[in-house]
Amino acid sequence: MTPLRLALLERHYRTEGLSQNDAAKWLELLADTWTKREEGRPLVELAPLKELRGSTGESTTGGAAVAAAASAVVSKSRSDLFTVIDAFDVPTWWYDPGKKMFVKPFENDSIMSSAEAKSALFRHGEHFLLFGMLAQLEEGKLFIEDKAGSIELDFSTMADKHTSVNGLFTESCFALVDGFVEDGIFKVEEIGLPPPESREQTRNAFPNVNLFGGPQSLRTEAQLRAIEVANDNGIIVLSDVWLDKQETMDALHMLFDGFSHSTPPIAFIFIGDFSSKPFVPGSGETVQYRDNMTALGQLIAGFPEIARKSHFVFVPGNNDPWGQGALPKPPIAEFFTKRLGSRIANVSFTTNPCRIKYCTHEIVIFREDMLKRVRRNSVLPPTEGTEIVKHLVRTVIDQGHLCPLPQRICPIYWAYDHAMRLYPIPDVLILADRFDSYSINYEGCHCINPGSFSSGDFSFFMYYPIPKK
User: Fold this and answer.
1) Rounded to two decimals, what is the model's pTM?
2) 361: domain range?
3) Cys-Cys link to 228, which of 67, 359, 431, 439 (CB 3.0-4.6 A)?
């Protein structure tokens, strides 16, 4: 406090003839009155101090001033025990992180307030965590939207901070964005995928609901597990099996011959394309495609133990009959597969995608060049130094959907979108892609890509359910 203010206070209690004890009480009263009236604003000016001195008993003398003022404070404190505050009297305080104190953003002495109050309504500078779907509602502008509305996103703040991006974010992806609003635009500082729910959590929450599909087994889980242990011969997975290439047929002969000398595998999963070139309806390729399937049946029949004991599953690709169009894609028509099916004891010609339930294991199969399509439509580049396939797997699992792309890019039948969902997370997810083969374990799900059998080095995957390898 400056010498002028000290002199003013000293002159007051000496003029009034206050004792040292009364002077101390008067100073406490002075400070308390100012604090209550000005809500903690520092007392730094001389004029308010003079006015405050007068309001606390300048006209009275001695201890009577203190007693009168103290009585008023006590009386007021009793009224404070039950106070009704209407909405228009609620003080407006905002915390300023820069000043590290509460400040008044504007004066609210009238219902017809200024434009300043409207802009303050959106709390510029405050951080928010938003959850919604990424969408391009205007050309070249990305928004995040939910049922309540949408707001434009600006990722320049992320670029300035070199914020890491984990996952591949495309339109129609659900995302969590952290940032602040400035001039009606949400400045994104961080972006992330929604956290996945583990398979165990889902099963514990819905123990009696068959979300995966298929008939309910009459055996207990312990009995099914015992069957798995006794028959852990592995499941063979091959993708892009071009039956119109002699090299492919020779490689398949070698494969079957190798397994014919041991216990046959649990299953062979053949994933399209089954032709090196797109199928054109009405062309001379129709008969050739059917004959290629028949030749495969003859090849398998040449190994009776495998043809009798192993399951064979055929999943179509884009180049197979009527493979183009929306998802899910129908099975290859019986016209092409009847002769092949007649030579194998256990065979299924199924859709793309499809699901397989083997004892306690749940397997999801999807044939699509997802990595290329998702990367092409990503709105943010992923963090460098991380394997791109890890970004893809994380995106698919966290989104809980096999194809997190907008309908205009990858159309899906509206009534069957649920067939594309990954809830609960499966034990095995086969993302058959023409990218290099990989095997990644994420959130307890074994995600594999067998790679291209015919256009590569005839590689394939063999999955063992019990050790999950």
Assistant:
1) 0.74
2) 199-368+403-463
3) 359
